[in-house]
């Protein structure tokens, strides 16, 4: 039935709120526990009965003297006021992030190969120096292409390097059965073959975080076809720098298999909980500070883009998780020279191609003590230690000067142009 009445425009549907920061319940519980413990500690602090670490005892004694002149009710009221303000700022930061209008709008470059859920993206230029980039299995590959103005790969492409990015995506039915050998000697080597066929000559390889371990294993297997290797924030000695955390991760092998066996994979929120445990107070610091930023500022936009990537992780196949949790963290197989892929040991001392190790000095997830041994083990390896963190290594405002430019220079020297 027609009507002469003008059609009213449909109201715009608001963008859905973000789910993050993930795991949100853990972050909220940690904040509440931290602040509630401050209330419980007040009487002990005032009486001098609160135990302190040895390096904090001088400051604690000074604080106790200052508190002698303060009445406990007044002090309690001041603490309550401070806790309320901190809670408000933290909540405001989370809410501002969840409602922020930013959405990533970068268009992916051409896909030149696909197998299962894995694809290979070509950032060009066609005649550039070819380099295969390998990210972690448990985070989205676009951390290396975060935005039009914050993309390591587009920066390198503009310098005549041809980045070919492995995008793992989420495990499908086939990938849920993959162990590390299936990923490296199977799927990754197939991507390497496709890239090699595309460019017609040897490839440089760059691995980031967990992807660095995959890259090293691949480079050893295909040494004759590899021109150079770069390892960005790559762990090797998993029990160096934070042995307690390694033991905690290793303790999850059997419970994880029991809980997620029917799924065939470890869900994203479980993996995000492991990152949370590495630094439980990080979200409190980050989102409290974010609450004070102008939402339209470049710093705020960069924060939201990075957090969106962090909260968009992917599951890990159960067989691979068992090897990572138990073999890497629990048994420390890489550092012991006992990690094997397709039956062959992964021995960095046997790699004889130009190598660059980038070990960020402020990395909490992969402490320098974990990544630095690679610079010693690989013959002739060069080392860069930027004053950045694990993610800041590729997306921070100082990353272009401290990492991108030196990396571009190094790749230009060591990776030949395509044939």
For the structure shown, list the relevant keywords.
419 residues, single chain, two-stranded antiparallel sheet, Rossmann fold, alpha/beta
Give the gist of this structure:
With 419 residues, the protein is an alpha/beta fold. It is built from 16 helices and 12 strands.
Structure description:
- The protein is α/β, with parallel strands linked by helices.
- It has a domain at 111-243 and 315-414: Rossmann fold.
- It has 16 helices and twelve strands.
- It has helices at residues 24-47, 57-67, 72-99, 152-158, 180-199, 210-221, 243-250, 253-260, 268-278, 282-290, 298-310, 318-330, 368-371, 373-377, 392-395, 399-414, and strands spanning 111-115, 118-122, 129-134, 161-167, 203-208, 226-232, 265-266, 316-317, 340-341, 344-345, 355-358, 382-384.
- The strands form three sheets. Strands 1-2-4-3-5-6-11-12 form an eight-stranded mixed sheet, with helices on both faces. Strands 7-8 form a two-stranded antiparallel sheet. Strands 9-10 form a two-stranded antiparallel sheet.
- α3 packs across α10 (282-290).
- The mean pLDDT is 92.
Reconstruct the topology from this structure.
Blueprint: H1 24-47, H2 57-67, H3 72-99, E1 111-115, E2 118-122, E3 129-134, H4 152-158, E4 161-167, H5 180-199, E5 203-208, H6 210-221, E6 226-232, H7 243-250, H8 253-260, E7 265-266, H9 268-278, H10 282-290, H11 298-310, E8 316-317, H12 318-330, E9 340-341, E10 344-345, E11 355-358, H13 368-371, H14 373-377, E12 382-384, H15 392-395, H16 399-414
Parallel strand pairs: 3-4, 3-5, 5-6, 6-11, 11-12
Antiparallel strand pairs: 1-2, 2-4, 7-8, 9-10
């Amino acid at each position: 039935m027609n009507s002469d009445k003008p059609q009213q425009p449909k109201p715009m549907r608001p963008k859905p709120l973000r789910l993050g920061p993930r795991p949100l319940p853990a972050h909220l519980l940690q904040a509440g526990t931290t602040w509630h413990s401050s209330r419980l500690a007040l009487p002990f602090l005032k009486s001098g009965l609160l135990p302190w670490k040895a390096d904090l005892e001088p400051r604690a004694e000074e604080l106790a003297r200052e508190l002698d002149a303060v009445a406990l009710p007044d002090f309690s009221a001041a603490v309550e006021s401070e806790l309320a303000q901190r809670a408000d700022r933290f909540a405001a930061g989370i809410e501002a992030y969840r409602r922020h209008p930013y959405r990533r709008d970068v268009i992916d470059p051409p896909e030149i190969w696909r197998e299962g859920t894995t694809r290979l993206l070509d950032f060009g230029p066609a005649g550039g120096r070819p380099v295969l980039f390998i990210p972690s299995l448990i985070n989205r590959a676009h951390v290396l292409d975060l935005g039009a103005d914050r993309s390591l790969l587009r920066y390198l492409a503009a310098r005549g390097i041809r980045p070919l990015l492995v995008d793992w995506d989420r495990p499908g039915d086939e990938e849920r059965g993959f162990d590390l050998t299936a990923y490296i000697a199977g799927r990754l080597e197939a991507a390497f073959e496709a890239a090699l066929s595309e460019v017609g000559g040897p490839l440089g390889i760059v691995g980031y975080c967990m992807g660095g371990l995959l890259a090293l294993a691949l480079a050893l297997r295909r040494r004759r076809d590899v021109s150079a290797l770069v390892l960005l924030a790559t762990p090797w000695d998993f029990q160096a720098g934070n042995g307690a955390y390694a033991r905690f991760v290793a303790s999850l092998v059997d419970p994880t298999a029991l809980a997620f066996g029917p799924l065939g994979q470890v869900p994203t929120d479980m993996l995000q909980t492991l990152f949370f445990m590495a630094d439980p107070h990080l979200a409190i610091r980050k989102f409290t500070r974010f609450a004070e930023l102008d939402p339209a500022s470049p710093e705020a936009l960069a924060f939201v883009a990075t957090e969106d990537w962090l909260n968009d992780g992917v599951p890990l196949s159960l067989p691979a998780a068992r090897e990572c949790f138990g073999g890497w963290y629990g048994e420390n197989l890489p550092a012991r020279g006992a990690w094997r892929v397709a039956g062959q040991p992964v021995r960095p001392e046997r790699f004889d191609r130009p190598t660059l190790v980038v070990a960020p000095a402020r990395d909490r997830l992969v402490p320098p003590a974990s990544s630095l041994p690679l610079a010693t083990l690989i013959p002739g390896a060069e080392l860069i230690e930027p004053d950045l963190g694990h993610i800041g290594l590729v997306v921070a405002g100082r990353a272009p000067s401290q990492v991108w430019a030196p990396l571009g220079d190094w790749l230009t020297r060591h990776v030949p142009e395509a044939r």
